[in-house]
Every structure is written in C-alpha cells, then in structure tokens.
Write a structure and sequence with these properties.
The structure is a homotetramer of 288-residue chains. The relative contact order of chain A is 0.13. In chain A, α3 runs parallel beside α8. A 7-stranded mixed beta sheet of chain A has the order 7-6-5-8-9-10-11, with helices on both faces. Chain A has a 4-stranded antiparallel beta sheet with strand order 2-3-1-4, covered by helices on one side. The first copy, chain A, has a two-stranded antiparallel ribbon with strand order 12-13. Chain A is of the alpha/beta class and 288 residues long. Chain A is globular, with a radius of gyration of 21 Å. The first copy, chain A, contains 8 helices and 13 strands. Chain A has 2 domains: 80 residues, Alpha-Beta Plaits; 194 residues, 3-Layer(aba) Sandwich (Rossmann fold). The N and C termini of chain A lie close together (7 Å). In chain A, β12 and β13 form a beta hairpin. Chains in contact: A-B, A-C, A-D, B-C, B-D, C-D. Chains A and C meet through β11 and β13 of A and β11 and β13 of C.
Chain lengths: 288, 288, 288, 288
Amino acid sequence: MIVSSMPSAILLIHSPDRKGLIAAVSDFLYKHGANVLHADQHRDNDLGLFFMRVEWDLQDFDLDQQALRRLFAPIAESFEMQWRLEYQTTRPAMAIFVSKYLHCLLDLLHRHQSGDLDCSIPLIISNHEDARAHAEFYGIPFHCIPTTAGNKGQAERDHLELLAANGVSLIVLARYMQVLSPAFVTQYPQRIINVHHSFLPAFSGARPYHAALQRGVKLIGATSHYVTDVLDEGPIIEQDVTRVSHRDQLDDLVRKGRDLERTVLGRAVAWHLERRILCYGNKTVVFD
Amino acid sequence: MIVSSMPSAILLIHSPDRKGLIAAVSDFLYKHGANVLHADQHRDNDLGLFFMRVEWDLQDFDLDQQALRRLFAPIAESFEMQWRLEYQTTRPAMAIFVSKYLHCLLDLLHRHQSGDLDCSIPLIISNHEDARAHAEFYGIPFHCIPTTAGNKGQAERDHLELLAANGVSLIVLARYMQVLSPAFVTQYPQRIINVHHSFLPAFSGARPYHAALQRGVKLIGATSHYVTDVLDEGPIIEQDVTRVSHRDQLDDLVRKGRDLERTVLGRAVAWHLERRILCYGNKTVVFD
Amino acid sequence: MIVSSMPSAILLIHSPDRKGLIAAVSDFLYKHGANVLHADQHRDNDLGLFFMRVEWDLQDFDLDQQALRRLFAPIAESFEMQWRLEYQTTRPAMAIFVSKYLHCLLDLLHRHQSGDLDCSIPLIISNHEDARAHAEFYGIPFHCIPTTAGNKGQAERDHLELLAANGVSLIVLARYMQVLSPAFVTQYPQRIINVHHSFLPAFSGARPYHAALQRGVKLIGATSHYVTDVLDEGPIIEQDVTRVSHRDQLDDLVRKGRDLERTVLGRAVAWHLERRILCYGNKTVVFD
Amino acid sequence: MIVSSMPSAILLIHSPDRKGLIAAVSDFLYKHGANVLHADQHRDNDLGLFFMRVEWDLQDFDLDQQALRRLFAPIAESFEMQWRLEYQTTRPAMAIFVSKYLHCLLDLLHRHQSGDLDCSIPLIISNHEDARAHAEFYGIPFHCIPTTAGNKGQAERDHLELLAANGVSLIVLARYMQVLSPAFVTQYPQRIINVHHSFLPAFSGARPYHAALQRGVKLIGATSHYVTDVLDEGPIIEQDVTRVSHRDQLDDLVRKGRDLERTVLGRAVAWHLERRILCYGNKTVVFD
C-alpha cells in the first residue's frame, strides 16, 4: 500500500454483517465526489461481523469533516456501525519509550528519516541515559526519568504530563523494560504498541530467550501488540520467527532476536500510522 | 478465504480507474438483492488501472445469469470494463498432465479428496505409465499417450480431443516434461497452470537444480504460472523458496524442491478454482 | 546430507568436554582403516558438554561390530562418553499410527516410495478404518484396533505385540489422536515421533487451531517431537510456521496447517532414520 | 556460533578428499596442546573435495604462529591441502563504501556498536556527502571522493591509498553505487563484500526492483556476495527473500527490500569476520 501524498480521509467500520452496507457507504461517498483510493472489506462468518476500510482523496470531496460526520451518522446508525474517521492530513505525534537496548529505537528513527513513518516524533522518554546521544543526533528532545520501585507512580505522572504537552497520540515501547500501570494504559487505549521478544503466547513474561533456550525450540520469534491491562495479552499486530539450532547459545538468540524485534515493531508502527489496523475483541484486522 | 458452500456468483473486473465505479457495481448488486460475501479492490496507480473481485450469494438475488449479463453490460461499457462472470455453482473439470515424477499429482489428488479443490477430475493424461496405478486407485480414467519427436502433433490432437470430450476447463501440468505447442496453448488461454522447479526468472529452461547448484545459490525455489507461448515466461501465480547450504548436493536440492513444487502448484490450482486470479499484461492479481 | 549407498557405521557421542577427544576418536578410526564420510561436532559451552557424530564407510575398515565395541569401550570410558553405535546396513522397521486425518500418513508413504526414507514399513496401526484402502494400495499390512475408554489397556497390549512381532524400532504418530500411556512410552524411549499441530510450547493440548484463532496470532505452526511421559513436552525435533491473517477462519487454519504438519513430520522421520538426532536433557542436537 | 573471547586460532582447509586427513589434523593439534573449540568438516562428493574449519584456543597451545606454520606445512603438503591460518587475536580493519542510501551503513554501524562485528572501522568512503553526519556521530573518519566518468581512475587510486594507509583487510560495499574496476578488485580478492538488491542470478545489473515489478514476481530478494571481475557474478554468501503482492508498487518493493538488504549484508560481514567462509570455484562454504 502506498500512502497517498494528496490529502485523504479514511473510514474504518466494524458492524454486524448486513446486506446493502457496502452499497450504502460507496453510494454516500460517490455522491459527495469522493475518489476512492483503497477499499477493503472483511467478513468474519463465525462471528457475523463485517469490517471495512475505505480511503478516498479529498480533492473533489464536497464535505468538510464536520458535515461528513453529521451526514454519515444516520447511515452508521441504521447499520449499527462502530466507525472511526481519520484524516491523513493530520500527522500524528508519536512518543518512543526505550531503556538500554537501542536497536528498535534506532530502527524507528531511521525509518522515520527515510520517510516510511508518516508522523512527528516530539520526544523520546527513557529510564536510562543510553539513548540520549542518538536522540540528540536526530534532534529529538530526550527525557530521562529514572524509575525505581518507589517512584513509579510519580514517574508515570511525569510521563503523562509530557505526552499531553506534546499532543502525543501514539506511544511505542521500543524495548522499554518497565511494566505500565493499568491507570496509564487506560489513558491510551489501542494507542500503545509494544514489542515482546517471543512468539506469543509462548514465553510471555520475563526472559523469553532463556525460556526458549531451555525448551529447545527450533524457531524463535517476536510479537508486536497493543498494550492492555494484562501483560503480553493485548491484540497481536504482527509476528515473525527465525530459525535457531542446537549451535545457538543465549547470545545468539539475543542477536538473532534483535533483527526480528525491530522488523515486527517497525511494521506494526507503520500500519498503525497508515490507519490500517482495526481492533475487535482481542484481535486485530490489518487491512492490506 | 472460505469457499462458500451456498451457490454464489463472482464478478472479476479490470478497467481504467474511474470515479464512481465501486458505487455503481455495489449499487447494482444491492438493488437486485445480492448479499455480498467478499469484495476486494485494487488500483495500480502507475498504470491507472482498477481491479475488482466481488462475490455474492445467489439466494435472494433476483436475476438469472442471462438477465444479469444483459443488465450489467451497459454499466460495464460506460466504465470501459473488461469483466468476467463466474458461477460457483458450476464445478470446473480439471485435467492433470503428468510424466514420471508423481509428487505433484499425488498432492493434487489428496487435496482434491480432502475437499480443498472444488472441481471434478475427469482424466489424467501422461506420456508414461508410472501414474496409472495411482490414477486407478483414485478412480480417475488414465490415458497414456507416449510422445516422441515424431508423433508430437498427433499426440496433441489426441489430447485436445480427450479434453474436449471431458469438458475440461483447466489443465494442470504436474511436472509434465513436454513442451506444449503454441497451437495447443492458444486453445486454453489462462487455463493451463504449470509448475517450474526454480525461482523464475532465475534458472528458466531445462535442469534448474543443476544450474542452481552450479551457481551456488543459498535458496532454491519453485514457481507456478499460467502457460503462454513463451517457455517459462507466463504470468506468475505463486512462488516459494527454501534454504540450501554447501552441504546440499543435487539429490538434496531435488528432494527439498519436491516439497516446494507441490505447495506452489497446490496453491495456484486452489486460487484458480476459487476464481481469485485476474491476469493483466503478463502479471496476476491474486485477490485474498 | 546424502545417505551413503555403501555400508557405513555411525558413532554418536555425548560427553563432558575434554581436550583430545576429537583426536582420540579420529585416530582410532584412522588406525582401523575408516574412511570418514561425515564428522560433525558441537560444544555446549554453558553446560560444558561435547557432542559428536561421525560416519565412516566400512569397506576398508578392519573391525567387525563386536571388535569395534570391545576396542572402543576403553577410549569411551576414559573420556566418560555416552555413545551409540549404529550400522546403516540395518534398515530399521518403522510403524505408522494414524487415525482419521491421512495427510501425514500419505506423505510418509510417498516419501518412502520416493526413496527418501531408508526403512521398511511392516505395518500401519489405526483406531479407525479410514486408512485401510491406502495401506492396501501400498501393500502394507493394516491393523485396525478400535480404542475406547474401556479397552485402552488391551489395545496397547495388542499394539505392543504387533510391534514386537514386526521388529519395529521406530513408531511414528501421524496425527494419531490417542494419548499413549506412560507404560507404552517407556518401551520405546526416543523411538516415538509425534507431530503436534501448533508451535510448541504455545497451544499444547487439544484443539490448537481453535486456540490460535481465539488468540489472534499472525502465524501458525507445527512441531515434531519425541514422545515422553508428559504430553507435548518431549524433545523438539523440528518446527515450522506459516502466515495467517484475519481473513483465515478455522477451516483455513486447518488446511494451511496440514502442509506444515506433514513437512515437519517428514523431516523429523528422515533425520531420525539417518541417525542424525542426539537427545540430551529434554533437547535435541540435529547434526546437519 | 559464539565468537570466543579468549585468543584463538583458526585453520581453514580445502583439499582433495583423503583418508586420514581429519586424524592427521586432530592429532597434530592435540599433540601441541590445542583445545578444539569448533571443528566442522564437509565433503563435496561430486567434486571429491574436502573442506575443514577448526578453531582452538591458544591458552595451552605450545606453538607460536611461525612454528605452527613451519610444522604444519609438511602435513598440508602430504595431503595437497590449500590452507589458511587466521588468528582471532588480530582484529581486522573494515572499510565501508556507501553512496546515498544509508540503511546498510547504519545497520553495520549499529551491529558494530552492539559488539556483533569483531573488527575496527577506520574509515568510511563515499562519492556523496549524505553519510558524513552519521560517520561523525560514530566517530569514524569520513572521506568523500566524488566520482565522475572522467575521474574514476584517480578516485580508485585515492581509495587504494586510503585503504592501504589504514591497513584495511575487508571492504564492504553498503549500497555503493559505483562499479569497481577489475584493477581495484584484483587488489582485494575475496575481501570485498557487496549487497545486490535482487535474488541473484535473477535481475542482475541495474534497477532490479523495476525489473521485478515488471516481471510480476511474488517474492523479492537480496544477495550478498564477494566481488569479482564479473558484475554480480561473484561467490554468493547469503540470500533472503520476502513476499510481495500485486498491491506492492515500486516504492513498496524498495522499502521492503531495504530490510532484506541490510540483513543479508549484516550476516555476510559477520561470517566473514568470524572466518567462517571458504571459497572454492565460484561458490562458498559457510561453516556454521
């Protein structure tokens, strides 16, 4: 999928499966001059659910955002849709949290510089100093807020303040080694992406490479997912694996895993920014 | 994608990219009572082309095939569509051509028996006797027509006669080691699927595993494609690869390649039967 | 690795890591005229363990099996080796257990026919009749022993009798849907290979595809492993995965999984027969 | 494979296949107190060739480099070995050549910083200024030598002078978009590693992503190889692929390809530095 360079709008719909739904949406958009760039639908037959993503360019579209919301609402209601409207014209602000392992952070920074991630990065937050030089090199404000058992509540309040001050709408945990409190997570529903260094649900929790070595698996993996209250249990966005053998010791797993982690995190962040992900239940639809 | 068990119709469209096209099609189907099961669209921005596949169940649809064709024709014309209408109700007849290597044939027969391939298999044609026992076990008529340099023309006339007599609409070359003549190929445009034992365009032509070994590649592949006049140059449907190392000798490449060949051929045949493939230029769109 | 067609012997060694070990083994073999075909070593640095597989052709070797065992024993003792001597000259007898899903069985039978599996298959055992026709087609005696909650003990006694009568040294569970009792497993330590239809340790136990769908994973897997007392916990031999998306419903997972299952089982069986697998702790070394 | 942190020596052998060769080498090393860390052998049956890599720690080894070379020479001669002796104690100096695409360079710099690449990087050479800021951030001298059709000879002389002055033993072309002259290549036989953005031998030469898009392949690849006189024809070290679909336009191929390129280049460089690669004919043995 190519992110369009012209201003575009995106409608993400999730509803009971009803006849005439596609026609109603297509018709509405067409009547108002929309040139549809992408349209993708999915039906979950078991659950009787319907999912749709449609993106159109705004050039000849005759409604502004407010009018669009007002006129589309009754259609949505008649089909019992849950819907989300997004404008590619607004660049989201993304905050990156990192600890001591920098490979995921550097990967995101380089993808951003290459133009792959359509967002601003107003700040990087860490509980360690390791990433400061890199952050400064890329000209991104760096906030080191050391976290101890004692100050965790205060640290999170500081984080929230910084995020609000910077208008952050997406938080990426790039191997950030602290567990977020439910109170924090609740503030950013489906807006916090984490990378876990295992093929979930295998080896959730701490030290997954140790556990993988112990179990003698022949493939190791990494998983990017939205963060929810339950550790490592949020909706999975992307996973990948790589082959290991008896020759691979712990250091090898860690090294091979690094390449996986940054890849699955990079993909998840790009897809989120392209508004291609729709959550339902504890699962994701990732429209291609 | 689940093949629907209820009777359904499929429309495959290929046209210049025009505003209102999705709305026009959706609207037409909705007005006639179609319950859309799947709809997928694709725009090729570089070429300014639009592709669409829409499948709907026929239960409440108020047009028969003839009426549908007549009423849809003016819409198609106004958008300059190339279009194809297919009914899942008709089970296509598939002929399998095979020589001495049986792994692709056996794989297709077992997929068919498992219900993965929605077609009949009225005959198997070979230039050797090797597959006869298997064909008979599965209760499929087996025709051995030995092919020599001298009798090739006659052999192909015999093939065409058998295919016509059995109403065959799809021919699968399951490691059939004879090159088909252009005259033969012309009779079944985009209806002959071959598997080539390399990652095309690398190692086209004879003895690709020898060539791969000689070049020292670290991955070998297989490719399924529609057959055209030009050997190994037809539209690619599916490809896959597997890792090899310096330890792998020719026999290992052949053995590892077998697993690839049957997989990429099996997928291509299933997708064709599900009417998910649309050709344009020398390429394929495979709708998911 | 090419299985040598000439008679060969294989020594599999597992010992504490000691200086001079390779030299001692190489020297011993050389002095007795061995032409080494393959030699592979592995050190587990963390555990301080050393693993070795060496295969040599027997043509000019001046010791028979008995003499070899007698003369090698003191060397083994001095290095505290655990060792296993195997002769490629003896073709092992393999029994296949199957229930109603036949894809793994058919795959093994075809690999055997293609010459990929160097063993005899004196019998197929099942708790259902489904595989009988295929077994008979391949000329392999088929024993249907229905298993109920009540007769499980007797069924296993029948199995053991059949296995003993046929000199079976390897049992392959090709989607055999019964749990073996510890008493049975104890009779064939590291000689029973199972395929589980998930990426272990994720989704162990019953209905792994249902669980995978429920969790919303983006890859599904299959695992072949030696059977031990603890269900799905034995040493892993091979694993593989394939990509799934939100479009894949349960049937798609089952269908895609079939291709994985037969591949990971086929590889495990071939490697076992080539005496390439060495178990230690609950893990495997698979020599390439 | 873990690179040992203690000083070690590595012997890479390539010879006609002869009985007693392993024993002779093992015995020699053992007698001089070597503790073998890794030993790997490979026989190419078709060519009758034998390959061996053996690494031992130098702690109790009783020969210095000179004595080792003198005493091993007659053994090597009697088996007609081609052999190479390397000491892990010497950290090789690696030069990186880059043009305008920085993803491979940044990847190498970060792998180096993470401790994955056991070498020094005394300089980065480019025909453009794009990489200067990154080079300076990592504290590596950066030399921009613009290259035009007219000054190519002089530019290469400048390069050679810089390489010699810095004692460079490995040159990595990290998407360096200039073809090296045969005169240059000859100076660094099997010491120049390039990454080509296709699955060689498919799409050699210029603009491989354009060619891949044109052909309609379903997978794209990248290849790392040693540079020889013939463009894109040198011994392949590593290859990998990723899936593409009809949805992927040129920009998507370029973006997906970037992840492949850096991975296959990173692996090739690491393996070279670990002295795990042995060339013969136009192929590589990569010992694991």
